[in-house]
Input
Amino acid sequence: MTFGAQDEVTVGHLSTVATRNYLIVGALVLLVWEYAVTVQDEFSFIWRKPFNHVKFLYILSRYYGLAAQLINVYLALYRLSHLPLHQDICRTWALFLIISSGVLLAVLDCILLTRVYALYNKDSNIGFMLLGLFVMELGVDVGCAYAVYHKTPYDVTCDSYEMPFHSVYLTSPVIAMQTVIWVMTLHKTHSLGTRKNIPLLGVIMRDGAWIFLLIVSIYMSTIPYVAASRVMRTHAALILPISMLSISVS
Output
């Protein structure tokens, strides 16, 4: 690929790359710190217990998140620091970030949906409804990821100055899903709490509230940030959420 005058590397581009590298390394440091703090509990409550689907989801989220951020640090410091970057490299990296955040979000959704399903006494109608919502969210995310991969133009640093409208749809099903999960959790825990004094309900409410606020805040802030800066920086929208989603499961 040949680069024209508009693709010349400037001091501003180098500053963008430096900021990106700091953010990526910081996201990995956050995950490593959280791992060091909780690894003892992990061995006690995860590795010493029988294998089940919750254990599988925990391990997947924990170590997939770490692996993804290690790969991002390697790419950022070695491959993505050599400007100018080709469109194909930018698209491939953006797709990797979308898939990584999507996998971790799907794991978190599975855990939260399983909890809601159990709260409603494993009602089959509730189960089918939740499964339908999950499949719909997954389908929209896959379609939007495909569109972002094929239709987003990038500059020499992998930033895009054209915000594709389908990126808005990428956040919409996430916010809708988390809202449904939180409302159903709130309704059921309140209903049970008025009849029975169950300490576990308080834990479910607390965890559900902070996860809802965290996920919605992350995704709700993405679009205003892009609109205000007029630049779509894939790393700014997805790097930190990868770490936060991984931590949310643990």
